[in-house]
Write a structure and sequence with these properties.
The structure is a homodimer. In chain A, a hairpin with a 5-residue loop joins β3 and β4. In chain A, the strands form 2 sheets. Chain A has a two-stranded antiparallel sheet with strand order 1-2. A two-stranded antiparallel ribbon of chain A has the order 3-4. By secondary structure, the first copy, chain A, is of the alpha+beta class. Chain A has 6 helices and 6 strands, in the order ααααββααββββ. Chain A is globular, with a radius of gyration of 20 Å. At the A-B interface, α1, α2, α3, α6 and β3 of A face α1, α2, α6, β3 and β4 of B. β5 of chain A pairs antiparallel with β5 of chain B. The structure holds a DNA duplex (30 and 30 nucleotides).
DNA sequence: AAGGTGGGTTCCAATATGGAACTTGTCAAT
DNA sequence: ATTGACAAGTTCCATATTGGAACCCACCTT
């Protein structure tokens, strides 16, 4: 399966990864959530090549995750900002951050701590059940076919020449 | 910045992505959470090439996200299973699933629904504050330097020949 | 011994990425 | 009116990474 076919899979993971699942896109989005907006700022922050950055930003804009808006006048400059759809990726980023803090941090601890303005505490994101509020773990969740389910067309094993 | 340098960045997103942030790894992990264990089963499910699959499984094993265990006897077969560290990626996968369900599903709805055995409801994962339990959104969270923080060494802009 | 299976490796062509230089439009200073 | 600077890209080429298919090997089964 090639990368551009992923988006048409009957799987929300595949569909999401067809948008954000490449080498650099999530790093770009991390920067967006940190307030980075300008082309050169992404470049400096990420060490990504301009070529790839340009390509990824365009893809994110075409997927409606970012929008490109002009600002200033004469000279007009552009900034890339998260759309609501892009904002909704916050749980993905925060889950990634927490896993990194838990499992990939050096001895000193997490590089960044998060402060919840609503309650005033230092916190991390926790995934809970939308219905009962209990923390989720894989063992207590069953996956069942939903309304958009299509039985995967199992690719026939390539026939060996007989 | 090259891919193999990502892991040494002072950022939990970068560190996490150095482990799971490539084209196929998250798809492999999705399969793991769905109960796929054998080499050929991953291949059939993903349509990934054997070469890349082999490489990714080895990387995940070396990062302690999966472990390779022999089972059966004569012939010995192998299976790849999630470690606890791998299991902890569940929130990442579920956040990705929910975003895909919300924004990339077709008109029929989500391909998979989730049933929480603990409470008996159909549900999705929600990210909440670990302290107050309120749903999180980016606007209500401040990021501050933590114990493992190191001021990023800003790469000097390459000097233009004067 | 011939064929099947699981779990890989090897090889080559096609893609994608890294690195650096070049382009375009606009401003600001000399 | 030129020179230089800056933001935001594009272009070009060398190097890495993938996709696709074939090959390998140990161990069954018939």
């Amino acid at each position: 399966m090639r990368w551009d076919e992923l988006g048409s899979e009957t799987c929300s993971v595949a569909r999401t990864l067809s948008v954000i699942g490449d080498r650099w896109t999530l790093m770009i989005l991390r920067d967006c959530f940190m307030g980075v907006r300008r082309f050169e700022a992404f470049e400096a922050s990420l060490g990504i090549t301009r070529h790839v950055l340009s390509d990824r930003l365009q893809k994110l804009v075409s997927e409606d995750v970012l929008r490109k808006e002009p600002y200033g006048e004469a000279p007009v400059r552009y900034q890339y900002r998260l759309t609501e759809k892009g904002f909704d990726l916050y749980p993905v980023i925060m889950s990634i951050v927490y896993w990194g803090d838990s499992h990939q941090a050096d001895a000193r601890g997490a590089p960044i701590i998060h402060h919840h303005k609503t309650c005033g505490h230092q916190m991390h994101g926790t995934l809970v059940c939308s219905e009962c509020g209990e923390p989720l773990d894989a063992r207590s969740v069953e996956a069942l076919p939903g309304p958009g389910f299509t039985r995967p067309a199992r690719k026939p094993k390539r026939a060996r020449p007989s």
